[in-house]
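Hi support team,

I've been running sequence recovery on a batch of backbones for a student project. Most finish fine, but this one hangs at about 90% for roughly twenty minutes before it completes. I'm not sure whether the input is malformed or the queue is just slow. I've pasted the structure tokens below so you can try to reproduce it. Let me know if you need the job ID as well.

Thanks,
M.K.
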């Protein structure tokens, strides 16, 4: 096969500045983030608009773009705040606005006309007619509904203007509702999922109660292990890079603005390495190196699936029987510098002399590192690092860049 002329964009989540920097260090071409309102993730720290300048400047210095989420479904009382919000976003020089509501799209064109608009998966685009209509209204990019097969995305690509970009989720949590539009959280907790405050009740455990047996609960099970009936598996497409590219997808989106900086770093690094490897030597039988696939299992995750891209849900019901996340590894420290004799690190979780850690650098398979000696900032020998954010040095001849991670199995 010929070399690939255009790589897809790696688009990573950035819930705060630490996660933004992790995404940039590990190879994201663009990040998506939210302000303190109008975004679909209210829980993360996000970026107040008065701090957005710094985030955008940091990304642009790294050669990456910033897409600002404005993809809630705002009520009447919120609409009057949008013009000022959009003008401030434009002043911050974000590279795109992500929207789901047609009224918001209209306001974007009026108050921030120089900023490209991307249509969120919340809009539920499932056909080429809708994609064309949104392009005619001024959208530069669409994120199709997550319910589509790759074959359907391929058809949308073939029947829309080539200038219209297509962005698709390739990794992360899957929502059981139609393109993320859900009322379950609203009904059970009063927290509006369509305005960024989802309580994720689909992840809870449920039971039945028979009418005449008040207080007697019967678990809903499918086998001896039971099941969380609304709890979908996570998506992982790391082994299907060629199929995603052949479908004409321009941007590979990683879900997870509420996830940790460690998650952002590791998953971004895996997809960066996979895309770069395939584009350098494309082949019909291409598979990522085993360490790249394994990286996706060294973060918190539920059982993986490929979403709706290939499988018939009736045959492959994407239910996660485990219910919660697996967390087989945790980050121990972030490298601040190295000199060939010591690694200087900032601690994140406790680790001790005598433990074997993994060193993860961008674009490289992880390396083993035995902690033989460790010292405080002022040179005092210590046997463990129990305090968060301690500055330490570890005897080590490796010389990784600032931003590399140390981690261990839990």
């Amino acid at each position: 096969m010929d070399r690939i002329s255009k790589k897809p964009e790696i688009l990573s989540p950035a819930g705060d500045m630490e996660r933004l920097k992790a995404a940039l260090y590990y190879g994201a071409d663009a990040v998506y983030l939210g302000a303190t309102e109008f975004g679909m993730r209210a829980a993360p720290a996000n970026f107040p608009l008065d701090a957005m300048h710094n985030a955008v400047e940091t990304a642009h210095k790294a050669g990456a773009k910033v897409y600002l989420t404005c993809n809630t479904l705002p009520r009447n009382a919120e609409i009057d705040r949008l013009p000022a919000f959009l003008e401030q976003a434009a002043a911050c020089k974000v590279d795109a606005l992500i929207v789901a509501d047609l009224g918001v799209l209209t306001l974007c064109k009026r108050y921030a006309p120089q900023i490209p608009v991307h249509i969120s998966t919340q809009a539920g685009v499932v056909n080429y007619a809708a994609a064309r209509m949104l392009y005619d209204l001024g959208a530069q990019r669409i994120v199709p509904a997550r319910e589509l097969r790759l074959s359907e995305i391929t058809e949308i690509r073939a029947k829309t203007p080539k200038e219209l970009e297509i962005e698709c989720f390739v990794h992360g949590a899957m929502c059981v509702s139609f393109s993320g539009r859900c009322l379950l959280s609203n009904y059970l907790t009063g927290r509006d999922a369509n305005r960024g405050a989802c309580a994720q009740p689909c992840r809870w455990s449920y039971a039945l109660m028979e009418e005449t047996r008040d207080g007697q609960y019967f678990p809903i099970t499918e086998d001896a292990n039971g099941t969380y009936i609304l709890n979908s598996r996570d998506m992982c497409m790391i082994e299907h890079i060629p199929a995603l590219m052949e479908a004409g997808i321009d941007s590979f989106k990683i879900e997870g603005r509420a996830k940790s900086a460690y998650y952002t770093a590791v998953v971004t690094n895996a997809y960066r390495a996979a895309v770069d490897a395939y584009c350098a030597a494309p082949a019909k039988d291409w598979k990522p190196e085993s360490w790249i696939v394994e990286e996706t299992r060294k973060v918190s995750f539920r059982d993986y699936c490929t979403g709706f891209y290939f499988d018939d849900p009736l045959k492959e019901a994407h239910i996660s029987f485990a219910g919660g996340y697996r967390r087989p590894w945790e980050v121990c420290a972030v490298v601040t510098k190295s000199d060939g004799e010591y690694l200087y690190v900032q601690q994140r979780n406790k680790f001790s002399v005598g433990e074997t850690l993994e060193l993860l650098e961008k674009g490289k398979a992880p390396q083993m590192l035995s902690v033989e000696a460790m010292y405080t900032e002022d040179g005092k020998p210590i046997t463990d690092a129990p305090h968060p954010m301690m500055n330490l040095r570890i005897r080590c001849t490796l010389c990784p860049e600032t931003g590399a991670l140390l981690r261990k199995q839990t």
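--
Follow-up from support: It reproduced on our side and the slowdown came from queue contention, not your input. The CA atoms of residues 103 and 252 lie 27 Å apart. No action needed from you.
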